[in-house]
Write a structure and sequence with these properties.
It is a single chain. By secondary structure, the protein is an alpha+beta fold. Helices cover 21% and strands 28% of the residues. The chain has 2 helices and 5 strands, in the order E-E-H-E-E-H-E. It has a 5-stranded mixed beta sheet, with helices on one face.
């Protein structure tokens, strides 16, 4: 008598949806009413420089990739781009809705 397998053969495949951890989208307040949006927790499979290039083109903002000693590579974008990044990640299936955490205000 063989016991059934616990894995679901019809479950969604997580190979190309980023890491299993959360992707954190945060906003930071700077001086003179300026804001900065940061994205951390993206899978190492994604080229962050290419992502920044796509974000800059689609959202009409400036951005860069910084190396953080604790969090690794973090994407920084000018302005409040939280909603734009959230929609971009879902539209291009880079992450599932339950993997995205939007922080701030």
């Amino acid at each position: 008598m063989e016991l059934p397998s616990l894995s679901d053969p019809f479950a969604d495949d997580n190979q190309c949806t980023g890491s299993e951890d959360y992707i954190h989208i945060r906003i930071q307040q700077r001086n003179a009413g300026k804001t900065l949006t940061t994205v951390q927790g993206l899978s190492v499979n994604y080229d962050k420089k290419k992502l920044v290039k796509a974000f800059k083109k689609n959202f009409a903002c400036n951005g860069t990739v910084i190396e953080h000693p604790e969090y690794g590579e973090v994407i920084q974008l000018q302005g409040d781009q939280r909603r734009n990044i959230y929609q971009f990640m879902l539209e291009f299936r880079m992450a599932k809705e339950d993997q995205l955490k939007v922080h701030g205000f």
